[in-house]
Amino acid sequence: MARAARPRWPTKPANKIFLELSRCIRQNRLSVPKVPAWAQALKSKIAFLTLLASAPSSWIMEYSPKLDPLTFQGKTTHMYKTLLLMGLFCLSISAKTIDIKDYATPNDGLNDRPGFQAAADELRTSGGGTLIISEGTWDIGDAAILFIGNYVSYKIVGDKGSIIRIASAPNFSSFEVGNANSFEMRDLVFIGGTNGVDTASILNANYTGQVLVKGCRVFGVYGAYALFYTSNVDAVYEGNQFDGSGSNLAVIAAGGGGFRSLTVRNNTFFDYANFNGGYYSKPGSTPAWIRVEPTDEQLVNAAWGSTVIIDNNRLDEGAVNAISIKNVRNLQIRNIAVNVSGTTPGAGIVLDNVKYGSVINSVFGYVQARRPALVLRNESNVEISKLDFGGGVYLGTFDRSSRLVPVGLCTGCSVKPLNGGGSGSGSK
């Protein structure tokens, strides 16, 4: 019995189109819809299938081989119908992308929050996706924009020339996120009003798998709570500028019940900012740039990592304490530069009930008043290495239940017990 011929993909003009689509994909000029695991074998053909799905039947009949559905030697019907349906299915489940300009108008000084909410609702009912913030100034206020429910994923992406102005909503968070798989903010610029409190928080995210804030700039925004707050979230802040801004709690805060993790890397926290011809300075009496304080006991459970990583950040003296961490099991602080506040009782880092901590390869200085780089309380245990101090800053103080352990080169890290606690001189 003759062996049936293997099916062939269309040749000549159609094959050239497929090759061109493949080249665009490799150069990131065309995105391929995601496919489920069972369809991974067809992943390289999705662009071609999408093309076929949108083409007229005459084009398909002209450029596809005449394959019989059983012997693959004749006119095509069943095989291509199946493949076309699979392509259409994969296209239908891909993430949706919409533009805010289709829901609101920039640069008119009017409140664009209703348009933002309509766009958020569209993404939620479509299974998630990306909201592009086009060039222009967009004003939001009077209530929160809700990205809540359905356990889908959202992205809000700036178009480099876009600005979101936040004002006149001190009792509401600007963006509320909850019961989502993931949420991302990328390449956005936020500016505040002319004075006073602008918002409760720019972002308040709870019960969400992952939150990423990357490449954003925040100038002159003051919050009644924390500018960015997460609870029951794995949160990452990377490559942002939090300059000329502040709040009544912190710029970045995490806590509540069921704290998971927080990573803060490659950011700046300055008490002033210059942007687009304007000067911004609203740090006020911000208690901390970064604050973590879970409210419940952190169980040993993979679901609750209880880990904080703070790496390669610059923190100016605009906050009373640059970093404040409480009730956390694992803490890693490295490669930071801190201008310690001259405010009493200002300090570089305050740690309370931190079980395993490390502070390495960092510098603390600027202020001429005598201020501690580190304050340890309530059974905090911290390893230190390669720290340097300037101005009036010294190593720090710790109570009798805490331990400060030099584990490497640290010329100013001598530890001397005092009555009721301990202290390290760290002065030069």
Task: Describe the protein.
The chain has 428 residues and is mostly beta strands. It has two domains: 13-92, no CATH class; 98-424, Pectate Lyase C-like (3 Solenoid), CATH 2.160.20. The protein has five helices and 32 strands. The chain has helices at 13-26, 46-54, 57-63, 78-92, 113-125, and strands at residues 96-99, 129-133, 136-140, 145-148, 153-158, 162-166, 169-186, 189-191, 199-214, 217-219, 222-223, 226-231, 234-238, 241-243, 246-247, 250-256, 261-265, 268-270, 273-275, 278-280, 288-294, 307-311, 314-315, 321-334, 337-339, 347-365, 371-377, 381-389, 393-399, 403-406, 415-418, 421-424. Strands 9-12-16-21-24-22-17-13 form an eight-stranded parallel beta barrel. Strands 11-15 form a two-stranded parallel sheet. A two-stranded antiparallel ribbon has the order 19-20. Strand 31 and strand 32 form a beta hairpin. Helix 2 packs across helix 4 (78-92). It starts with 12 loop residues before the first helix and ends with a strand.
What are the SSEs and their pairings?
Blueprint: H1 13-26, H2 46-54, H3 57-63, H4 78-92, E1 96-99, H5 113-125, E2 129-133, E3 136-140, E4 145-148, E5 153-158, E6 162-166, E7 169-186, E8 189-191, E9 199-214, E10 217-219, E11 222-223, E12 226-231, E13 234-238, E14 241-243, E15 246-247, E16 250-256, E17 261-265, E18 268-270, E19 273-275, E20 278-280, E21 288-294, E22 307-311, E23 314-315, E24 321-334, E25 337-339, E26 347-365, E27 371-377, E28 381-389, E29 393-399, E30 403-406, E31 415-418, E32 421-424
Parallel strand pairs: 1-2, 2-5, 3-6, 4-7, 5-7, 6-8, 7-9, 8-10, 9-12, 9-13, 10-14, 11-15, 12-16, 13-17, 14-18, 16-21, 17-22, 18-23, 21-24, 22-24, 23-25, 24-26, 25-26, 26-27, 26-28, 27-29, 28-30
Antiparallel strand pairs: 19-20, 29-32, 31-32
Helix pairs in contact: 2-4
